[in-house]
Design a protein that fits this description.
The chain is α+β, with helices and mostly antiparallel strands. It contains 6 helices and 5 strands. The strands form 2 sheets. A 3-stranded antiparallel beta sheet has the order 4-3-5. Strands 1-2 form a two-stranded antiparallel sheet. Strand 1 and strand 2 form a beta hairpin. The longest helix has 30 residues. The radius of gyration is 21 Å and the shape is elongated. It starts with 7 loop residues before the first helix and ends with a helix.
């Protein structure tokens, strides 16, 4: 049987799974193989962070596909214990798309308060996952600018790469800050 090569993380985890356990050495909690413990934690954190960011990108793509009338907005996520807050601000619409009646003013344009409330309800269901994708750490509040024009080329594809979405939005945010 031909086995594919394992990544360093998979190799360490395999070794630990075969004969490892957690131990308490003095006041230090460590994996059975104490010299591997920091490396396993470092690699695990990096992989989980990448996965969180990719999942966040998929959520953004899903949102933009379900809300074709939304051009851009800023998403604010508070850490909070359990259920943090979600706020939407600086909402702009896509020209040529009808704004849903529940989000429109008397002229059919975006009503900021009504629209923000509706979008906040949608994002509340995804707050924890999105917070994990964009916050520096689990206790930090976060904000994230979402701009359809930055990821439009990705949304045209059948399968949207979540990590590519996050990287494109983050790069655009960095460019905006440096200007």
């Amino acid at each position: 049987m031909d086995e594919s090569p394992m990544s360093p993380l998979m190799h360490l985890m395999s070794q630990w799974a075969n004969h490892g356990t957690y131990t308490l050495r003095g006041q230090q909690i460590a994996l059975h193989e104490a010299e591997n413990s920091p490396e396993i934690r470092r690699l695990t954190h990096a992989r989980l962070r990448r996965m969180d960011r990719a999942y966040g990108g998929v959520i953004v793509a899903l949102f933009l596909r379900e809300h074709p009338w939304v051009a851009k907005f800023t998403l604010y996520l508070s850490a909070g214990m359990g259920h943090g807050q979600v706020n939407v601000a600086h909402l702009a619409g896509v020209g040529g798309y009808d704004v849903p009646e529940s989000c429109a003013d008397a002229d059919g344009d975006i009503h900021q308060r009504k629209s923000a409330q509706r979008l906040e309800e949608w994002w509340a269901d995804h707050r924890g996952d999105m917070h994990s994708a964009v916050a520096e750490d689990e206790l930090a509040d976060a904000s994230f600018a979402i701009d359809r024009t930055v990821v439009a080329h990705l949304l045209e594809q059948q399968d949207v790469d979540g990590l590519a979405v996050m990287e494109a939005l983050e790069a655009a945010t960095q460019r905006g800050r440096s200007q």
